[in-house]
TrEMBL record:
InterPro entries linked to this entry: Rubisco_LSMT_subst-bd, Rubisco_LSMT_subst-bd_sf, SET_dom, SET_dom_sf, SETD3_SETD6_MTase, SETD6_SET
Transmembrane spans: none
Cellular component terms (Gene Ontology): nucleus
Region listing for Disordered, in residue ranges: 453-476
Ranges of residues in domain SET: 24-268
Name of protein: SET domain-containing protein
Keyword match Methyltransferase: yes
Pfam families documented for this protein: Rubis-subs-bind, SET
Length: 476
């Protein structure tokens, strides 16, 4: 038996000993040959609603189940769920064989393929993707130094029992190791933890949509649910879900699963950029959730360069900010066919239309605390949006045509975190974003032609068909 298989077997034996029930119709399998780590596979046909496994709440690696908060009650009084679980995991990891969760840690990752761990040249393959600004490595470093490190240093003898009496002899190696460990546990939580609902609900799903925890759901306590977190995900291939019960959490089949099929959880409708950031992998099945962001700076610059009045823009932005319209960026989502009003952020359309209004019209809206209607995209608005989209396209180092001149596939051989794999995944992410921009550019160009040829009083391009009288576009 390989070490990998031994660790899997020891983990499952530990889980069963802890009171878990595991169906004999499933197997925790080595899927490294398809670059998917471990995964759960059906070895016999499984019916809809059938129990796959049940994990007792006491086996969850969580703040409630660890002794650390009992040892350091004052530390946990005001700490948010995210930092609390990081601390607990650091503590339990350092207890080594003495931790109740030791066999579980052996099947959790030591290395990650998420964007936080990519080299600079690998990140550059994402070109102008907005995900590069969301990796948050510096922010995480800062908060770990600010929040986690002082606690670990003050209670070094608790966290690092092997330091013994010299626990307070803190060295820079100690500091670096603690930050590294905090990153590792933070990344594990991001890709593996669930939001744990309290023990009151009547057999409730993980959250309303059944996704694994989102970092954004900061209020709910987080927990690591052994085996439940061994399920991979592949967009709509989802066929199982975790349900809360009073003393346990149960993974059940959502549909009939045939022998040999993989059992998939649902990580949510994530664009490939975000999937890469949080989970370190992508599949083409997630392409339908792709998003491209128009950063606020691009919006601002385009408005300043291309439209009067430049004066008063900042005051208008202040009002729009109060109304919740100003954001760091605006999403354009993918769909085929592309629909301007469905796919382009309505806040972006509101922002543009508000900035284009004559001063008197803007003042009137403001006095009534109102905003332009996103359904009323004007010709000027469409033109400005079109210029913005073109400016955004120009921010990427290569064109869509160049990127797609040869097909890109993610290598299935070699190391999971190889440069080759990362380059290919990054290329697919940027292609997805450029496809949306191309579609948006084309839809806006068509709309401009339509509005220009219609009743906006502008000159129609030569040879364009005459719009029939009274014909209204959806956007006029
Ligand atoms: C919740 S864990 C699932 C168990 C994981 N495969 C393991 O071996 O520990 C999430 C991680 O599994 C991997 N993963 C999940 N779904 C995948 C898929 N469809 N293809 C490749 N890797 C996947 C990614 O590395 C992701 O960060």
């Amino acid at each position: 038996m390989s070490q990998f298989e031994e660790e899997t077997a020891a983990f499952l034996a530990w889980l069963v000993k802890s009171g878990a029930e595991i169906s004999n119709k499933i197997e925790l399998r080595d899927l490294r040959q398809s670059q998917a780590g471990r995964g759960v596979v059906a070895i016999q046909d499984i019916q809809e609603d059938e129990l796959l496994f049940r994990v007792p709440r006491s086996s969850i690696l969580s703040v409630d189940n660890s002794v650390l908060p009992k040892r350091l009650p004052s530390v946990f009084k005001d700490l948010d769920p995210w930092f609390s679980l990081i601390l607990v995991m650091m503590y339990e990891w350092e207890q080594d064989g003495k931790s109740k969760w030791h066999p579980y840690f052996q099947v959790l990752p030591f290395e990650f393929n998420t964007l936080m761990f990519w080299e600079q040249d690998e990140l550059e393959q994402l070109q102008a993707s907005a995900v590069r600004n969301k990796i948050g490595k510096e922010q995480a470093d800062y908060t770990f130094k600010d929040t986690i490190l002082p606690i670990v240093m003050e209670h070094a003898e608790v966290f690092y029992p092997s330091y013994g009496k010299d626990a307070h002899d803190i060295t820079s190696a100690f500091v670096m190791e603690s930050i590294r460990l905090a990153h590792r546990m933070g990344s594990t939580i991001m890709a593996y933890a669930f939001d744990i609902e309290p023990v009151d609900s009547n057999s409730k799903a993980v959250d309303e949509e059944g996704y694994m925890s989102e970092v954004e759901d900061e209020a709910l306590p987080k927990g690591m649910v052994p085996l439940a977190d061994m399920l991979n995900a592949d967009a709509d291939k989802n066929n199982a879900r975790l349900f809360y019960e009073e003393d346990s959490l149960s993974m059940k089949a959502l549909k009939h699963i045939k022998a040999g099929e993989e059992i998939f959880n649902d990580y949510g409708p994530l664009p490939r950029s975000d999937l890469l950031r949080r989970y370190g992998y992508i599949t083409n099945n997630y392409a339908k959730y792709d998003v491209v962001e128009i950063p606020f700076d691009t919006v601002h610059e385009t408005v300043l360069k291309n439209s009067a009045p430049a004066s008063g823009i900042e005051t208008r932005l202040e009002y729009l900010d109060e109304q919740g319209i100003v954001d760091t960026g605006y999403d354009i989502i993918t769909s085929d066919p592309f629909d301007i009003h469905e796919n382009i952020s309505s806040d972006l359309i509101i922002l543009i239309e508000a900035l284009l209004l004559p001063q008197s019209a803007f003042d009137r809206l403001k006095s009534k605390s109102k905003l332009p209607k996103p359904s009323n995209l004007s010709l000027k608005g469409a033109q400005l949006l079109h210029t913005m989209v073109k400016a955004r396209i120009a921010q990427y180092a290569t064109s869509l045509e160049a990127d797609t001149s040869e097909s890109t596939t993610i290598p299935l051989t070699g190391s999971y975190s190889s440069r080759e794999r990362r380059y290919a995944m990054a290329k697919l992410v940027r292609i997805g974003e450029k496809v949306i921009l191309r579609d948006a550019e084309k839809a806006l160009a068509d709309l401009i032609e339509e509005l220009g040829a219609g009743n906006d009083g502008l000159k129609r391009p030569p040879n364009s068909p005459q719009g029939s009288p009274g014909k209204k576009t959806k956007f006029a």
